[in-house]
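Record now logged for everyone:
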Amino acid sequence: MENFEAGQSHGQETAPEAPKKPRFWKFAAWFVGIVVIVLAAASLASYVSPEARRDRELQRNYLQYQKGMSEFEAAMRADTYGGKTPQETLDMFVDALKKGDVELASKYFVLKNGIPDENWRNALEKAGKENRLSVITDDIGRARQTSLSSELKTAWFAVFSEKGEIVHEILLKLNEVSGVWKIESL
């Protein structure tokens, strides 16, 4: 009777419990969701971190530098005003001034940031208005090369007084990209 009272009869078995639904897919969905959230948070943190911002800024600066260097090299390649020797450049410069062509004469100067330096053209125009171009051409015509540095790609010329003292110095630099000599200073 004990079995009967417990709800079991002799030879009678209890009904099996309903099978539990697999919780694996529920667990997997939660796990994948947590992993996605963690990865998104890590990506966001790495994107807004000071190091990431600094790296992006460095990358932008580097790309800007590369662009600037490409433009500068292109300008240097296109800069063909000048001679194959320092003396040839000075002769071409003097010839342009004797003809009164200040625009051409100003092109024999070293480029500043990849463009012609307007200060030289303005100074030559001013000298032309003051009728001093002949004085400049006479002085440069008397200039003699005092040294040449193949290592520095630089040539120095000097204008001497009757006493042998240096009155003016002229510095020329080689544009290594186009292979012409340019006046850096008078």
Residues 25-78 form one domain.
